[in-house]
Amino acid sequence: MHEASPVGTASLVADDMSIRRELTPWLASVFVPPGWRGYGIASRLVQRVEAEALAHGIRQFHLYTPDQQALYRRLGWEDREALTYRGESVTVMSRRFSLLAP
Hints:
It is a single chain. This protein is an alpha+beta fold and about 100 residues long. The chain has one domain: Aminopeptidase. Helix content is about 20%, strand content about 35%. The longest helix is centred in the middle third of the chain and has 15 residues, at about 40-55.
């Protein structure tokens, strides 16, 4: 939030890809309005979701993205597979934390 305005969002959801229901949970809905991009907000949002997941015992989760692979790779996510979903080429990525992760 900036004052009373949201400057980004991110979620952890049980199911975000109907063709990969065996994968759960998912980092989803990461969005920063264009005027707020470039300030590291997306990275901080992803890290916050990761921290919340870890605090609740979640050690592995997934996401899919059509065009932000570089961002997620920088944050430690790994490519799982490339596929077409809802008519769009996307990369499914995963992040796994060891039991020793903070």
